[in-house]
Structure formats: structure tokens, C-alpha cells
Specification:
With 142 residues, this protein is α+β, with helices and mostly antiparallel strands. The protein contains six helices and six strands, in the order H-H-H-E-E-H-E-E-H-E-E-H. The chain has two domains: 62 residues, Winged helix-like DNA-binding domain superfamily/Winged helix DNA-binding domain (Arc Repressor Mutant, subunit A, Orthogonal Bundle), CATH 1.10.10; 69 residues, 2-Layer Sandwich (Gyrase A, domain 2), CATH 3.30.1360.40. The longest helix is centred in the last third of the chain and has 16 residues.
């Protein structure tokens, strides 16, 4: 339940402007999670979320650790040339991409996330299969 709720939080803050815990609590309720303010505070702390005081003050992902976020993502990995394609659960690609970026894998040049798909650019085609396997293993071990 915790992983599912936290994945939902990450999906919500990536897709919507949520600037208070009360807003987050209401959105979680519409997603089927009955939570207290204390639970939301704990989730925000565990997920290392921050609220930036810019014009669009809202919650953002900071640096996450893979065990807190992966929850079965990505579902599928493939590669072509030096590009790996990861298919995730709908709405979670940006959060998963943030995790991949935080890993600091030396062969990964960069990432790009959509709603349920991530493109991972690796240094050369020979490394794509090996790196895809490593990412898949890392995510499936959670």
C-alpha cells in the first residue's frame, strides 16, 4: 500500500500543480487512498520532496533513492543502437527517470521521460544491451 501510494504521489506531483499537503490529501482521496496529514508528511519526507518557492510554488522531486520509488517499474526494456527504451506504468516515467538520473551510471549520457516511456541514451551501441539488462535487474529487484 505504501509503495502504491508513494508512486501515486510522484505521478500526481509530476502531472499537476500541487502546492499544499491538503491538496495532495484531496487528490490521494480521489485516487482511492484514505490518508492522514501525518502520513502525507511522512511520505513527503521519505520521497525527499521539496516545495520550491518560485512563481509556481509546488512540490517537486528532489534526489530519490531507488528503493523508495521503483515499485515494479519499469515493466519492459528494449534497445536499438545506443538508445534504451523503458516502458513503465502509466504516469510514472518521470519519477522513474529521476531515479535513473540519480543512480549516476557511468555509461548513461542522458534520459528523457514521457508519460509511460523513457529513452536512455548510452555512450555506444555495444553498451546498450548490457546497460538495459542492468537497469531492468535493478528495478525488478525492488
Amino acid at each position: 500500500m505504501r509503495n502504491s501510494r508513494q508512486n501515486t504521489i510522484l505521478r500526481l506531483i509530476a502531472a499537476e500543480h500541487i502546492s499544499t499537503q491538503e491538496e495532495l490529501q484531496k487528490r490521494l482521496q480521489t485516487e482511492g487512498f484514505s490518508v492522514t496529514q501525518a502520513t502525507i508528511s511522512r511520505d513527503i519526507r521519505e520521497l525527499h520532496l521539496i516545495k520550491k518557492g518560485d512563481v509556481n510554488e509546488r512540490y517537486y522531486c528532489q534526489e530519490q533513492t531507488p528503493p523508495d520509488l521503483l515499485g515494479g517499474n519499469p515493466v519492459e526494456a528494449d534497445y536499438a543502437g545506443n538508445t534504451i527504451v523503458l516502458r513503465c506504468t502509466s504516469g510514472t516515467a518521470q519519477a522513474v527517470c529521476t531515479v535513473i538520473d540519480s543512480i549516476g551510471h557511468p555509461e548513461i549520457v542522458g534520459t528523457l521521460a514521457g508519460d509511460d516511456t523513457i529513452f536512455v541514451l548510452v555512450r555506444n551501441a555495444e553498451l546498450a544491451g548490457k546497460t538495459a539488462g542492468e537497469l531492468t535487474e535493478k528495478f525488478q529487484s525492488r
